[in-house]
Amino acid sequence: MSASYLHIDHVTMNFPTPSGEFCALKNVNFVINKGEYISIIGHSGCGKSTVLNIIAGLLDASQGGIFLENKQISGPGPERAVVFQHHSLMPWLSVYENVAIAVRQVFKRKKTKAEMHEWIIHNLELVHMDHAMDKLPSEISGGMKQRVGIARALAMEPKVLLMDEPFGALDALTRSHMQESLMDIQEKLNNTIVMITHDVDEAVLLSDKIIMMSNGPSANIGEVVEIDLPRPRNRVRLASNPTYNEYRQRVLSFLYERQSNPLSAPEKEESEDLVETVAETIKETPEATNVTELKSISDSGKAA
Ligand SMILES: Nc1ncnc2c1ncn2[C@@H]1O[C@H](COP(=O)(O)OP(=O)(O)O)[C@@H](O)[C@H]1O
Ligand SMILES: [Mg+2]
Fold first, then answer.
1. Residue 115 structural domain
2. pLDDT digits over 66-111, tens only?
């Protein structure tokens, strides 16, 4: 038995498909300590969400298992809260009610009504959303919805917070605000966090450890980088920090030199063809200003 907090213990995942079994993960093994912020990074389709969904208990591993404080977990549970890329708020409930529904479920026997109310407000304050607690999800921005999703997850007081590309759908500026907020929250609460990302800067800025995955099928852990940078971290100051840049370089070279982007051959050919036609069209039609325009000109040329 290991003394680690969370152990992803030699997990293999085979999916049944019409053309036979597809081995997405093969023997994935790593440990996470309490209070650690872990990022899992890898190219699209390598199996990051599969790992996270197995930890969340939404998928059952074909072999191996997940141990939390040395107990094997099975199925989902409130001690492992999940935040997805696209918010999963109930559209007919207010911001307050979206958090309340989780709080009531977890604390119905442990907190009084007044305590639950206080706890809901406290978690909304933590993500700076208390001012909008009576609004519906349709009345707030994408970044605000993700904040509510994070508040809801934190309000469950999970042992592990699991996040699958939580800021992937946000614009760059909102994303950087969310990263700052998450660093502040992490400093206050010292949560154990597993976050999936494909953003190298996000991974280095936020993490204590980056787990880099090889491409599938049969994906595995390629390399683990420990990020030994003092906290609180400041993105502007880090930009000129040589250690920060070394970490960044290490992740980049793993992703782009050792694991090239896994576009399949036909897709690659198709994209090379597109580059060629666009290049030709640029020569022929200097008035077009963007790729979509060029593509539609070249397509209409082909059709004619
Ligand atoms: N339910 C499923 N059935 C069959 N194949 C799946 C299923 N879920 C995921 N896969 C495959 O497993 C691989 C990993 O998927 P995923 O974990 O979603 O990747 P990532 O999150 O890194 O983009 C992909 O090739 C994907 O097509
Ligand atoms: Mg994914």
1. 88-155
2. 999 999 999 999 999 999 988 889 999 999 999 999 999 999 999 9
Backbone angles phi, psi at 10, to 5 degrees: 45, 60
Query: Which amino acid would we find at residue 137?
Result: P
The larger pLDDT score, comparing residue 281 to residue 197, is at 197
Residue 258 CA to ligand 1 center (angstroms) comes to 21
Residue 131 has pLDDT above 70, yes or no: yes
- Tell me: do 37 and 113 sit in the same domain: no
Note the pTM of the prediction, 2 decimals.
0.85
Residue minimizing CA distance to atom 11 of ligand 1: 24
Ligand 1 proximal residues by C-beta, below 6 Å: 15, 17, 22, 24, 42, 44-50, 216
Q: What is the mean pLDDT of residues 14-19?
A: 96
Number of structural domains (the chain) is 3
> Which pair of structure tokens corresponds to residue 266?
């036909």
Q: Where are the beta strands (DSSP E) in the chain?
A: 6-17, 20-32, 37-41, 63-68, 71-72, 80-83, 160-164, 192-197, 209-213, 221-226
